[in-house]
Write a structure and sequence with these properties.
single chain; alpha/beta; Rossmann fold; five-stranded mixed sheet; 11 helices; elongated; disordered C terminus
């Protein structure tokens, strides 16, 4: 079938893009890609689920007045805290008097929906950026509540404790690999009908990669563009031999959608990618991985890169 010719307004016309975000979070990304002309194949690589027990989070919320700070590192964390506040018959105003930090604008927007305005939102949307913002305001006398994924990077906890703060890290949710749809995805990749695969967290990259054997990944990588939301996600993808071609300067979902559209606007027809500069380096349309702003957390388990 002949590809649809793209236009300046719809540079992704004729392109099929895989979205690996959790199903509950994929809608906005899908809408942005479709608005640029893409045919989107939603293939969630992760499932967001409750933690093994609500008791640690419930206990922390019952004693929320004892904390100085409540720090949210994902939209998922906000959603799960909302769920448990409602279960306990508590309003969000129960957090009144606590200082609140959000890792990025999406998390801040989720808090705003509940009438909470974060005191701190870093310019670099990842744990390292949040630590830098908190470094001047967190004191050894502070108690910090950190409701987040059951398994995630320990940078934030480690650095806050180095500042002398007492940190209570409580599991608010877990992530697990999504198996549904793997057969359809495998068939589409084998048939060569996929133009790009997108990763919005390390967990999406890792779980997607582990659906396939190394030989399978090698077979389709040469003809599929890999788009990662930020350098940590790109580093995880690289551990599985998936070199990132597209990475935005600002590590947000809208910026990733735009970067992918800009990238394909420059790729010659009949090709799925620009010529790469070298293994592990983002190609045309992707800024160097050390630049830009931080990325949102999606419950990624610990990874090699800090």
């Amino acid at each position: 079938m002949a590809r649809v010719q793209p236009t300046d307004e719809r540079p992704l016309d004729g392109r099929t893009v895989v979205v690996t975000r959790a199903a509950a979070q994929a809608q906005r990304f899908t809408q942005l890609l479709e608005a640029a002309g893409a045919r989107v194949l939603e293939a969630p690589a992760i499932v967001i689920a409750p933690p093994p027990s609500w008791e640690p989070l419930d206990s922390a919320l019952a004693a929320v007045e004892t904390f100085t700070w409540v720090i949210f590192t994902s939209v998922n964390g906000v959603a799960m805290v909302d769920r448990r506040l409602a279960a306990r018959g508590l309003p969000w105003s129960a957090l009144g008097g606590r200082r609140v930090a959000a890792i990025g604008p999406a998390t801040a927007d989720a808090l705003a929906e509940h009438g909470v305005r974060p005191d701190v939102v870093p310019g670099e949307y990842r744990a390292e950026g949040l630590v830098e913002r908190l470094r001047t305001v967190v004191t050894p006398a502070d108690r910090v509540l950190l409701p987040r994924a059951a398994q995630t990077r320990d940078v934030l906890v480690t650095e806050l404790r180095r500042l002398g703060a007492h940190v209570d890290e409580v599991p608010a949710y877990t992530t697990r690999r999504a198996e549904a749809g793997a057969a359809r995805l495998r068939e589409a990749l084998a048939a060569g009908t996929i133009d790009a695969v997108t990763f919005t967290s390390s967990s999406t990259a890792r779980n997607f990669a582990e659906l396939f054997s190394e030989d399978e990944r090698r077979a389709w990588l040469s003809r599929v563009t890999v788009a990662s939301i930020g350098p940590i996600t790109a580093a995880t993808a690289a551990e599985y031999g998936m070199t990132t071609d597209v990475m935005p300067g600002e590590y947000t979902i809208p910026a990733l959608a735009k970067a992918l559209a800009d990238y394909f606007a420059r790729v010659p027809r009949g090709s799925t990618r620009a010529k790469r500069r070298g293994r592990g380096e983002p190609s045309q349309g992707a800024p160097p991985q050390k630049r830009g702003r931080g990325e949102p957390s999606e419950g990624a388990p610990p990874q090699r890169r800090p």
